Amino acid sequence: MTARFAQGWLLPIALIATWQAVGSTVQNPRMPLPSKVVTAFLRMIADGDLPMAIAQSLSRVFMGFMVAASIAIPLGLAMGHVRAIERNVDPLVESFRPVAAIAILPLAILWFGTGTGAAVLIVAYAAFFPIIINTVAGAKRINPTLLQAAATMGLTRMRTIRTVVVPAALPSIGVGLRIGMGVAWTAIVAAELAVGAKAGGGGSGGIGQMMFVFYAYSIELNRIIVCMIGVGIVALLLDRLIRWALRAAMPWTAR
Amino acid sequence: MTRLRIDHATKSFPAANGKETVAVHDVTLDVAQGEFLVIVGPSGCGKTTVLNMLAGLQLPTSGSVILDDKPIAGPGPERGVMFQDYALFPWCTVSGNIEFGLRHGPAGAKLDATARRERVRHYVDLVGLVGSEEKYPHQLSGGMRQRVALARLMAIEPAVLLMDEPLAALDAQTRLILQDELLRIWGQDRPATERRTVVFITHAIDEAVFLADRIAVMTTHPGRIKEVIDVNLPRARNDATRALPEFQALTQHIWQSIRDEAYRATVA
Amino acid sequence: MRTTRTRSVLIYLRTMALFLAAWALAAWWKDKPVLLPSPLAAIEAFVELAGGMELFEHAGISLARLLLSLALASALAIPLGLAMGLRPTLDRVVDPTVELLRPISGIAWIPLALFIFGIGNALPVFIMTYAAFFPILLGTIAAVRTVDARLVDAARTMGVPRRGIVTHVVMPAALPSLLVALRLGVASAWTAVVAAELIGAPSGLGYAIEWYRELLMTPQVMAFIAMIGILGYLCDRAVRELSVALTPWAPESAASR
Asked: How many CB atoms are located within 10 Å of the residue C95 CB?
């Protein structure tokens, strides 16, 4: 067991060590090194820059995510349950799905400026599609015999939806929420990055924008790398968080 | 003349709690040339493990498997296998599947393309699939898939045919038809020297009695051979055979032999 | 059969017509053409850009980048995925590194990549290749792993040597799932193209969107957004058709939507 664990770390450690060794020989003072990345990381934590930027981005993600879920889940359940609704709404969903959230950004900036409003819109748009697609699939995939069983027990339509359709669709909805969260986080970083690129040093804040500032203004590659790692770590943590929340909400699923 | 022999073979697996699970214990069987040997037993008695060892897909923990006086150490075309779920290659047509072992394995090494095609045609005809050569497995019924699997197995002309519950996935009526077909294809009315050697696994007792020259009855916990019975019913076997009193007697005898074990398997 | 097909087309048209009507109403009520142009203006802009070839020029550039990055990503990810799927030891060594890098989205690489490549063609291709790499790699590994062990056993009992098993059993068996992984890679790369071009390229659809936004020519912005959507759909469709053509035996292709 420990051998396996060690095997996994072999490659990353080797790569980092090579990076440090080879990078140290490079003359350019701007060359990023693992050691400098670590110092930059500590500095950014101490200054409070990094936590604040992440907090800002996270608040936007949560806001946008909530907006997306509160529209996508009810609509998706309706679509999955009532064929007519699906037939009429699906063309719109499928037409906009291939348009990435970031493509909407210029419109969002036009409408809301470079602040939080545009960011939340982008996040909501991005998270909307995985959530609704998986919700529809979950509602459709319900074993019809479950519905028949409910009918033979005399349940009303509304109650059936609440007590049978929703729990049965929950695993699929969960998958949609997980994917949606991942997409939301990528979208906010992209949006803040793009806004940072256009709005310059001021503007929205958040980790994406901070990254761009380090590129365009202070050219601190080590700090950029700290931000990149931060993006990765937050992505992992968000995924864990959602998985934990879903497991708590669905005690009946295996594992 | 013994073709295939499994000699005091034991197969055990390390279990999760550190101990060992013994799947089969001290199994010895001789299979004669041209014989149709059936292994029958309740679920979990290890009959598939025995077959896997004969095939070389699993190696015995102790003991050995010997083909024509040579011990075996792995799978090979001399011991062809027909699997329970047919294991047909979904991307190959019927003829593609049948030709597969000849094309990519040593069995067809000496054949050129024309010779291969000829052999495929022969077996397609033998199993009764003429006209379906270009179909894909997903377009075939269960019975047809089974025929493809059989033709694929026979095309490499193995010394021994090993069949793992090949009719289990079929409905009862198709099963009866294919039992007849199997005996016909095997050549039940030919002398033993001209027939292929078959080891056949099933859990259906009536099927075992209908097909076999000899039956090895296995029991569970651990899997071992309880007894070996000669089936003296006349060949060629057909529907009338099933009505014979000897048939009923044999079926009853075997059932009584494994009945308790089978019961325990359902409540354990 | 044809009646249901015509029916779904009609419903599609009806929904889109309602959408356009709602849009037109909102645009008329808001009365700020810079913020929300009427659908007519957007369509006019689209036609004009198409006629002047500008639409297709940028589309062509973005597509070319997509194809190049898919080729690169596949060339790297598929052999590696095959090897990792077939050899658990290799998987154990490489997988943790993959899992560490994967959460760092392609987008997060843009600033660093800008520093290395500068603004130009290389940047979007790099970002898109990175974005497509992970879905294709992980999908390939899964495709290899989920090959029915029985099929491998069947080939072994026919005496097929290991090399033959990889070429004639594992690869064909993994192909359907591999093509699904490719679809995901396309989607990933196409999402990344916009961000990459918006920030770091002098051409392409993402660049065009930003260009027209700065000029406050919103109908043109919408036209290019629509083009992104259309091409995204067509690319996905293309891979699905490819799947059907390459894997006629897979029942999924027969029922492909």
From this structure: 18
- Looking at residue C256, its pLDDT comes to 38
Higher pLDDT, residue C254 or B96 = B96
Label residues A108-144 b or e (16+ Cβ within 10 Å = b).
Answer: bbbeeebebbbbbbbbbbbbbbbbbbbbbbbbeebee
Q: How far is C51 from chain A (nearest CA, A)?
A: 22
With 90 as the cut, is the pLDDT of residue B2 above it? Answer: no
C111 touches chain A (CB under 8 A): yes
Domains contained in chain C, CATH given: 39-254 (1.10.3720.10)
Question: Do B136 and C248 make contact, defined as CB atoms within 8 angstroms?
Answer: yes
pLDDT surpasses 90 at A116: no
Find the closest chain A residue to C7 by CA distance: A87
Nearest Cα to Cα of residue A137 among A91, A72, A186:
A72
pLDDT at B214: 94
C151 closest CB neighbour out of B56, B74, B87: B87
Chain A CB contacts of C80 under 8 Å are: none
Helix (H/G/I), strand (E/B), else coil: A149: helix
C159 touches chain B (CB under 8 A): yes
Task: Give the mean pLDDT of chain A.
Answer: 87
Its ipTM equals: 0.83
CA A164 to mean position of chain CA atoms: 29
Q: Please give the Cα distance from A99 to C233 (Å, whole number).
A: 9
pLDDT at A201: 54
Nearest to B27 by CA among B50, B45, B59: B50
Q: What is the pLDDT of residue A106?
A: 86
Contact A180, A68 (CB under 8 A): yes
Which positions in chain A touch C92 (Cβ < 8 Å)? 4, 7-8
Domains of chain B: 2-78+160-267 (3.40.50.300), 87-157 (no CATH)
CATH of A35-249, one of 3.40.309.10, 1.10.3720.10, 2.60.40.740, 3.30.360.10: 1.10.3720.10
Is the backbone of residue C31 left (phi > 0), alpha (psi -120 to 50) or beta? Answer: left
B50-83, pLDDT tens digit by residue? 999 999 998 999 999 999 888 888 898 889 999 8
Chains linked to C by 3 or more Cβ pairs within 8 Å: A, B
* Nearest residue in chain C measured CA to CA from A102: C195
Q: How confident is the model at residue A113 (pLDDT cuts 50, 70, 90)?
A: confident
Select from B85, B196, B188 the least CA-distant residue to B145: B85
CB–CB contact A235 C222 (8 Å): no
Q: In sequence order, which residues have a C-beta less than 8 Å from that of residue B139 and are 6 or more positions away?
A: none
Q: How far apart are CA C179 and CA C195, in angstroms?
A: 25
3-class DSSP assignment, residue A115: coil
Contact check, Cβ <8 Å, A236/C103 = yes
Q: What are the structural domain ranges in chain A?
A: 35-249
Chain A residue numbers touching C116 (CB-CB < 8 A): none
Please tell me the distance from the alpha carbon of residue C50 to that of residue C54, in angstroms, as a whole number.
Answer: 6
